[in-house]
Every structure is written in structure tokens, then in C-alpha cells.
Amino acid sequence: MEKSKIELTEDDLREALKEFGGYIDITESDLKKLYEIAVKISRERCIHSWLAREIMSRDVITAKEDTDIHEAGRLLIKHKISGIPVVDNENRVVGIITEADLLTIAGIPRGHIFNDVVMKYVLNKPTPQHRAGKKVKDIMSTHVITVSPDTTVKKIAMILDEKRIKRVPVVDEANKLVGIVSRGDIIRVVCEEPNQKGAS
User: pTM above 0.85?
Assistant: First the structure.
């Protein structure tokens, strides 16, 4: 992650002073507390203006369309992620493969709750047919929601929430993959302390 964009303004300090309790004789302890409040207010103001390029993960695990499905599954397990972008030879995003896509091989359709399938089996009810395919291209989702490097964190959070997805690839003007933003990336930005910020 790039360096923090937090910059205290006079308004931040003014608001912090109001929250602290008005105009007072400042002690060293009071000044420290006032500063902490001002930083908190500044963080809340600035987070909405942070951009995808400032918080995205740049070292993205990807797959190709002809990657074996089992290899894609091993990548998800090895890197403890729930989905990976699928790119062509020019690094353009052509799809995305997720745990949900891989579960279709076992006859669990997208949007299904795993427990539902187990219960159908226990109750002797028919389960969905297995989906055929040996390559990533056979089961990947081709409708990929992407964002640009200049998309705000606020906008990305809204997309993740509205579309009920866990990550969104970041692409340039040519649709080439430059990074990925996950829910975890946003949580890290929101929760980390200001003095822990820096490039990553």
C-alpha cells in the first residue's frame, strides 16, 4: 500500500476540539488526545478519497483459460483465496474462477448453500447434475466486474456489497490486469493504525 494520504486540516482540528470539549488550557496529555481525535476525524474524511491503486494487491495470482481445473483449485487452496482472475496471453482479464465455480463440478450450482445439497443427499432427493469440464474456460464466469486504478475505495466497497462478491480485479484502459482489491484490503486500510502505514 502506498503512503498514507491523511493530512490534518484546520477543520479537522476544529472538529476534534469540539469533540474534546471546547476551548481549554492545553496540557501535553490534552494535546496528545486532541491530536488522536483529529487524526481519527481526518481518517474518516480521507478514506472515501483513497483509490484502488493505493490499496490494491499488485502480486495477483492468475490462471489461464486452458489451466486444468484441479490446478486452479490447488492455487486457491495454496494461497488461501476464494477466487482468481483468468487472463489471456496479453494479461487481459477474460474471466474469473471462484470456489463457487469449482463446486459446480460436484453438482452444486452457484448460489446454492452447501448444506442444502447435503440435506438433499440425506433425504434421498435428487441433487443437481455434475457440470462437465476439465479446463478453467469450461466453468469460469465470463462476466467480470472490474474497476480502474482511480476508482475510490468507497465505490469499490459499494460494488462488493451490492454484487455480493469478495474481490474485484483492477484493470487499465486496455483491460490489462494491474491489481486486485479484496474485502480484506479494504478492512486493512480501515483498521490499521496511521503509524503503520507505508508502501506494501
Answer: no
